[in-house]
Write a structure and sequence with these properties.
This protein starts with a helix and ends with a helix. Helix 8 runs antiparallel to helix 18. The protein has 432 residues and is mainly α. It has one domain. 79% of the residues lie in helices and 0% in strands.
Length: 432
């Protein structure tokens, strides 16, 4: 009776607080506290779990990646990346749409955030596409769907959430490496989808630029892309840990934007730090309270009960995984992605391990599956942002999303059924 009532108190309190729009960090902490009071769990245990969550070495990379992303965003890197991608692929049919997909891949390697991608790149690419003759729903669909590339291309905040929430000593560097190839495949799939639609609807070809202008654009963009290389090559080659790579990349980003691009002065740099502090404080609070929430979950044996329930339906690992994926897709329509990773990882992670899935492969599946929720109503934060920029209602944009939803699900299916897509790089380098 105590276990059943404790579980009801934990999830009931969380649901009520979230319906009242209490910030998620407070909702997690308060629901864990009320349940602990009912079960006579010492408060010291909760506080120790909260402290452990934000003092781990894994978490130390987060501030550096946040600062790096903020500096590069405020320093105008998104505009330079867009021009660079236009030089690479802009002369194809529907070139601006393909540029949108490719620049999101690069920008994802800087921001690690879908909503940041839509807000920065979409702010000028969506109006530009509409002006060139693209349909508004297509422009929004391309921008929003390609922005999800950033959640699996390192440095990904959501991957860090997964690693911290799993609480099993997993390596953030290995998790990052699992995202590169799937991120590239998703980008190419979206480019193909964009091109096929562009050909069928006879969308325009971008204007040709002079060679001298192209050379200047490439030079400026390559300096910014070195930031991505520091993270990607440094971690992959084992030169840096994720924390060291984040610190070095942040310093490099400051040097480039302040002394080469000259787009960041002291006042803007202080503004970057203030914005970064706001983001960091929110993330720290969520991670701290989620650890207390996860502790109570384990005390109530919720993960074990979920595992038993799922395996009672079927003993086939693939069927169990697909049930979890379906549940994540449904929940993703109603809750924010970061919150779901924090809530579901302590429950689903033990289930995935019990049926033999690699923890890093499952992490990538989980992040990519929940990423679909960013594009689906009624919550879909990236969807709302894109529609707001284009000034069109969500219901009008959904038709344009259908081929991109299908493409996204095909890529997700490939990653689920072919684990080597995500694991081949870390295995080749001896990380897995």
């Amino acid at each position: 009776m105590n276990i059943a009532m404790g579980t009801a108190i934990l999830f009931g309190t969380l649901a009520v607080l979230m319906c009242l729009r209490v910030p998620i960090s407070f909702s997690l902490g308060i629901s864990a506290l009320f349940t602990a009071i009912y079960l006579d769990i010492p408060f010291l245990n909760l506080f120790q779990k909260m402290a452990t969550g934000i003092t781990s070495f894994t978490f130390m990379c987060v501030p550096f990646f946040i600062i790096m992303a903020q500096i590069m965003t405020d320093g105008g890197i998104s505009d330079r990346l867009t021009k660079f991608c236009n030089v690479l692929v802009g002369r194809m049919r529907g070139g601006t749409a393909i540029v949108n997909c490719v620049v999101s891949m690069f920008f994802g390697g800087i921001s690690g955030s879908s909503i940041a991608d839509v807000s920065s790149i979409g702010a000028f690419l969506i109006p530009a596409m509409v002006k060139e003759g693209y349909d508004a729903d297509y422009s929004v669909a391309v921008t929003c769907t390609s922005s999800v590339e950033g959640i699996i291309i390192p440095p990904s905040q959501n991957m860090i959430y997964y690693i911290v929430a799993a609480g099993s000593g997993l390596s953030i560097s290995t998790m990052f490496m699992c995202g590169y190839l799937p991120g590239f495949i998703l980008t190419m799939a979206l480019c193909v989808c964009s091109y096929v639609i562009a050909v069928r609807k006879k969308y325009p070809i971008s204007e040709k630029r002079p060679w001298k202008e192209n050379i200047i654009i490439v030079k400026e963009a390559l300096l910014g892309l070195v930031t991505i290389l520091i993270v990607a090559v440094g971690i992959t080659a084992g030169v840096f840990t994720a924390t060291e790579a984040g610190a070095i990349a942040a310093v490099y980003a400051l040097i480039i934007t302040a002394f080469i691009y000259k787009t960041i002065d002291f006042k803007k740099f202080v503004g970057c730090l203030i914005k970064s502090l706001k983001s960091l404080s929110t993330i720290m609070a969520i991670i701290a309270t989620s650890n207390a929430f996860s502790y109570v979950l384990s005390y109530l044996k919720v993960p074990a009960r979920v595992a038993t329930a799922l395996t009672n339906v079927s003993d086939n690992p693939t069927v169990v995984l697909l049930m979890m994926v379906l549940l994540m897709i449904i929940l993703g329509c109603f809750m924010d992605m970061g919150i779901l990773i924090i809530l579901l990882t302590p429950i689903f992670y033990p289930v995935a391990m019990s049926i033999g899935y690699n923890p890093y492969h499952f992490g990538l599946i989980m992040v990519l599956t929940l990423g679909l929720g960013l594009l689906t109503p009624p919550v879909g934060t990236s969807l709302w942002a894109g529609c707001a920029i284009a000034n069109i209602p969500i219901e009008k944009s959904l038709k344009g999303f259908l081929p991109f939803y299908f493409t996204y699900l095909v890529v997700l299916a490939f990653i689920i059924f072919f684990p080597e897509i995500s694991l081949c790089l870390p295995r080749a380098l001896g990380y897995v």
